User: Which sequence fits this backbone?
């Protein structure tokens, strides 16, 4: 069998994986592990390892071949015909386009960004109805959400905390051009999330870069009477 003309670099797992994917994309029909190994001149176990990774990543489909005799049929593999979700992305450009549009079209971009954040904030909580949340639980939930979003909140005593100290902004590239809009959006997100929690507190102010690596979200009682901590 003629071997495929693809570059080989056995010491680079990602490169070998791309070689296998390239071979499957060019193949007119699904291939077995042995066929792939022969064309690439490598061991079947190496091919199997990388195929498992490609299947897990959703880039290759595993099929059952026809049995030529007793025993289980050999698996066949084909490249999945779709865009690679693990490929290069450019969300920075998308964010810049949207923030620039907001800045150019709204009479009060800051207020519009806060309102947009408030609208989206409840989606961070989920669809389960919330009867009411204690102050401690609300602060813990808020800091957990901020951590998941990449803000790196500092640990604190949730029952006594007057603010949430944030050590990272996951949107620094956009903040450079539209700090007021982006930070106002973050403020609205926190406010909307706390409203969805029916929490006895809110975030009434977000101070950005009080230190080069620190932003501070200030907590205050909300209109709802505070529950016990």
Assistant:
């Amino acid at each position: 069998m003629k071997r495929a003309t693809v570059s080989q670099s056995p010491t680079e797992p990602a490169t070998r994986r791309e070689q296998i994917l390239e071979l499957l994309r060019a193949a007119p029909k699904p291939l077995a592990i042995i066929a792939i190994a022969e064309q690439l001149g490598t061991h079947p176990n190496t091919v199997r390892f990388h195929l498992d990774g490609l299947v897990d990543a959703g880039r290759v489909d595993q099929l059952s071949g026809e049995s030529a005799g007793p025993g289980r049929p050999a698996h066949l593999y084909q490249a999945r015909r779709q865009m690679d979700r693990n490929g290069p992305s450019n969300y920075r450009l998308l964010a810049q386009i949207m923030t620039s549009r907001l800045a150019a079209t709204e009479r009060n971009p800051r207020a519009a960004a806060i309102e947009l954040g408030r609208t989206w904030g409840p989606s961070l909580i989920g669809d389960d109805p919330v009867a009411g949340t204690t102050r401690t639980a609300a602060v813990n939930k808020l800091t957990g959400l901020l951590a998941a979003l990449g803000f790196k909140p500092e640990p604190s005593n949730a029952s006594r905390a007057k603010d949430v100290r944030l050590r990272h902004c996951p949107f620094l590239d956009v903040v450079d051009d539209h700090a007021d809009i982006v930070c106002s959006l973050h403020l609205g997100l926190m406010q909307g999330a706390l409203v969805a929690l029916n929490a006895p507190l809110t975030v009434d102010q977000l101070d950005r870069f009080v230190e080069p690596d620190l932003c501070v979200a200030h907590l205050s009682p909300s209109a709802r009477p505070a529950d016990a901590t």
Summary: DSSP finds seven helices and six strands in the chain. The helical segments are 13-26, 33-40, 44-56, 91-105, 109-120, 135-149, 172-196. Strands lie at 31-32, 60-64, 75-79, 163-166, 201-211, 214-221.
